[in-house]
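User: Structure please.
Assistant: Input sequence and predicted structure:
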Amino acid sequence: MRLSQMQDIGGCRAVLRSIEEVRSILGTSKLWAESGDLREINYIQNPKETGYRSVHYVWKYAPKLEIRDGYDGMRVEIQIRSALQHAWATAVEMASTFKNEDLKFGQGDPNWIRFFALMGSAIAMEEATPLVPGTPHNKKELRRELRDLSENIGVEGQMKRWSEVTSIARDLPAPTGDARVFLVTLHPADYRWQVKVKAFRESETIRASEEYLQAEKESAERQNVQVALVSVESIDMLREAYPNYYQDTSKFLKALQTVLHATSAKPAVVHSHQRRKR
């Protein structure tokens, strides 16, 4: 791919408190195009099948000074989201990191992929925007499937433990300060989840992989045991991309609880829409 073809060589993200604030920004976005070309990709009106919802603006830089001609045509991506949409994205990034799967691209465990698609629609219902393709339009049916699936794969327990792991990994004492990968084991114990983290240095990566494979075999024989081999870089990148990581994951789990324990609900607002080709 040519560098000039990348639409997100640089970028920024605006996270707003509500969908109403997102709409207020979208109404003025054309002002940004005064010095360049702007293209809108609206994943709120046209959600991805994974459940991803946000608005992207791809801006093509048009320099006014000759000294900057080398950047002519380079693209920058601007993302605009509500707080709930951002909480969803944070949760997907966390699950992808610890499961080592590209869930946000629809690759990996089908149960987790389906869970996030359902949660995308649950948040869309809350924001009265178009639902994720392939998910129930009836709120009770959506809640029923979401409850069964989240309990089956243990979403809440695993997410809470993953948050703990990022804190443990950051605060591990010497001699693990030069650690490069962590072998993480999550398993239920006395009606709660227990977290074990073992650190490995860069020179021990082969041994780390061998112990991970052995732990994977053992976990296959034990119900609900989760094993992951996570790099320091992936955890650091997660924190860098999502600085409000703990707050965002708490917000996501709170949103999940709100959906699962709702006793009365307003009729869902269902919108018809067409998928936009990229």
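The chain has three domains: 3-83, 85-153+252-260, 155-243.
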